[in-house]
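[job 4471] stage=fold_predict status=RUNNING
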Amino acid sequence: MAQTDNKMLILGALAGVAGIGLAVVCYRSLNSKRRSSWPGFYHNRTNIHEPGLTLVDGPGLPNEQAAVLQRLEALIQCVSELKDEMKALKTALPALQDHVREELRGHSSTHRASPLHRTRRRRTAGTTSRAEGQSSEDAESEGGYMTALTDSEDEEFSEEEQSCEERAEDELAVLLQRIDRLRQGGESEKRESLDILLEQKDQFGQNSAFLWRLTRAYCDVHDACCLLEEKKTLAERGKQVGEEAICLNPRCAESHQWYAIMCGILAEYDTIQNKIKNGYIFKDHLDKAIELKPQDPLSYYLLGRWCYAVAQLSWIERKVAATLFGEPPSATIEDALKNFLKVEELHPAYSKLNYVFLAKCYKYLGQMEKARQMCEAACSMDNVSKERMMTYDAEKLVPR
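[job 4471] inference complete, writing structure tokens
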């Protein structure tokens, strides 16, 4: 509060007291003139601090006039008390500004939070007071000063929170770009990518774009690792992070896609029953990824691999799946071919492996000329495709 505001507040209060005092003086003057006509009343001067009116013997007054005089006596008492309160207020006002600053510092320290975990406060003081039966004037007179302070404080915190959120979003965008660049490198860069993501998980672990990249990093390091136990641990942790990403944002296609991939990887280390179970999960999440992002060729390639593996199941293997789950997975070579062709439609020359499986499908269907063309296309491509493909075999999702 500025010094000028303090002066204005004091002057306004003193003006109000002066007005009430003037009304009391007028009342006393009028009362002295009428004392002769009201012989039954006179001013009590025995107690200066308790001025009032006292009844004496004499002709009585009507009840209405007596009630008015009693109210005036109460008003005089209130004026006396108000003068005392104004003196106390005048003494306290110089220190009020420092007190308010200390209170605001205390609020600011308790309301700070991390950039990605914030809740905005709602101003409900006015509506609550009116809901309890108080008028708007009562609410303003009782808490108007503090309400003004709260409004300004809310605006200050709102700007500060917005600034922090914008900085956090910028930091996350820079981090994700760095991770995507590292993934294009070799084994050491992929391990560095996983380490960086793990270090930043506490700060950005509630963002689905961050989590599905962490799942992908687990997959990349799994493929580069040679130790069986370490590979299994990486697959389990990657699947767990994939579940977190889906729970956080079920509408993220990449989360469903990489969770399905981790289910396929983990099938290498499970029992036959769990392999079949993961096969169903794999298919369901790939379908969801395609529904959310129908222009992603990787999802169609993976689905084509799954369909090709299921189509190759023997009668005994289908019976095992039916015994365990009631209904065996169903797919044909035509389904697999359809998905591999969709990959070429979305991204021509997407990968060598896609050409290889196109050749297998055409050969199985007896279309030898097309199979030969796909083999030639695969041979003409470099070993490293434009988009890195999964090194695990989707056929491991079904029992053999």
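[job 4471] summary: DSSP finds 15 helices and two strands in the chain.
[job 4471] exit 0
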